[in-house]
Amino acid sequence: MRIGAHVDSADPLAEATARTAETVQFFLSDPQGWKAPKPRADAERLRGADVDRYVHAPYVINVATLNNRIRIPSRKLLLAHAQAAAAIGARGLIVHGGHVNAGDDLAVGFDNWRKTFAYAAESGGFGVPVLIENTAGGGNACARRLDALAQLWDAVADYEVGFCLDTCHAHAGGEELLGLVDRVKAITGRIDLVHANNSKGVFDSGQDRHDNLDGGTIDPELVVAVIRAAGAPVVVETPGGAEGQAADIAFLRNRLGTKAPSA
Q1: Is residue 34 part of a domain?
Q2: Which residues contact 148 (CB under 8 A, 6 or more apart)?
Q3: Buried b / exposed e across 135-153, counting CB within 10 Å, b at 16+?
Q4: Of 74, 158, 168, 224, which has fewest CB within 10 angstroms of its CB?
Q5: Which of 221, 140, 150 is closest to 185 using CA atoms?
Q6: How would you classify residue 243: left for phi > 0, otherwise alpha for psi between -120 and 50, otherwise beta?
Q7: Is 28 within a domain?
Q8: φ, ψ of residue 110 in degrees (nearest 5)
Q9: What pLDDT score was predicted for residue 260?
Q10: Could you tell me if residue 9 is inside a domain?
């Protein structure tokens, strides 16, 4: 079980060393912007590293929406990030499940997801697994509640899609962590990555506010139980920079009985 953190994109491998991490996740462009990522000068170095890489797509992407001015650019940007992620040998591209606007039919949002994969297939595919992440808030979200996730998976399961389970998002989104892995796998058949985060927001608050594993409103042992049951790589997206994240990684290794990588 390889454990790491979401880090600054300037030098992800140095950030991994600072945290004794086996895995890094980072953005390839402004997470709040619409610009496509540029080729990285360190692409070859990243591809040859013994540190697993994951790329997180920008937060602005929403391929589910019925708003053409958002949905169409979102499809293009998602594909651009997938191609850039493939260029650095990333193991997956994480993207939030998205939502439709109030009053819109959520079923159309699920079908828009299907069309997104079909659009990518026309261009040769994404090139890396797209890992859809559960989200914390919104009454019109495609991946907050498990009943919605089931409908989303019916639409996309035939494509190269995986699932990223965020513990903060699940808790704040109103899904109990106890037994959650079994409930998710009954829908998706898989969990490809765990975002191990505590939550500043209380259960079902809809607040996407991460906390360190020994803080927040979630019993840390429940986060450990999710990780153990999922058996997937782990990324902490917690505050405190290298020091805070290194402490969270060490906490997980201690509870899971795994060793830090040798220098």
Answers
A1: yes
A2: 106, 141, 142
A3: bbbbebbbbbbbebbebbb
A4: 158
A5: 150
A6: alpha
A7: yes
A8: -65, -40
A9: 84
A10: no
- Whether residue 250 contacts residue 21, with contact meaning beta carbons closer than 8 Å, is answered with no
Helix (H) or strand (E) holding 25: strand 23-26
Q: How many structural domains comprise the chain?
A: 1
Domain carrying residue 28:
24-55+63-167+175-232
What's the CA gap between 169 and 178, in Å, rounded?
Answer: 14
Asked if residue 54 lies in contact with residue 79, where contact means CB atoms within 8 angstroms, the answer is no
Average pLDDT, the chain: 97
Residue 263 has pLDDT above 70, yes or no: no
Q: What is the pLDDT of residues 11-30, one digit of tens each?
A: 999 999 999 999 999 999 99
- Other CB atoms within 10 Å distance of the CB of residue 253: 16
Cα–Cα distance, 160 to 79 (Å, whole number): 13
The stretch 138-156 carries a mean pLDDT of 97
Instruction: Specify the pLDDT at position 259.
Output: 86
Cα-based angle 159, 157, 109 (whole degrees, multiple of 5): 95
Q: Which residue has the tokens 């991490």?
A: 21
Where residue 74 sits, what CATH number does that domain have? 3.20.20.150
Place of tokens 């299907």: 114
- Give the CA-trace dihedral at 190, 187, 223, 49, to 10 degrees: 20
Q: What is the DSSP string of 28-77?
A: SS-TTS-PPPPPPTTHHHHHT-SSEEEEEPPTT--TT-S-HHHHHHHHHH
Q: Is residue 226 part of a domain?
A: yes
Distance of CA 51 to the CA centre of its chain: 17
- Residue 106 CB neighbours (<10 A): 17
- In this predicted structure, the answer to whether residue 226 has a pLDDT above a threshold of 90 is yes
For the chain, count helices (H), then strands (E). Answer: 9, 10
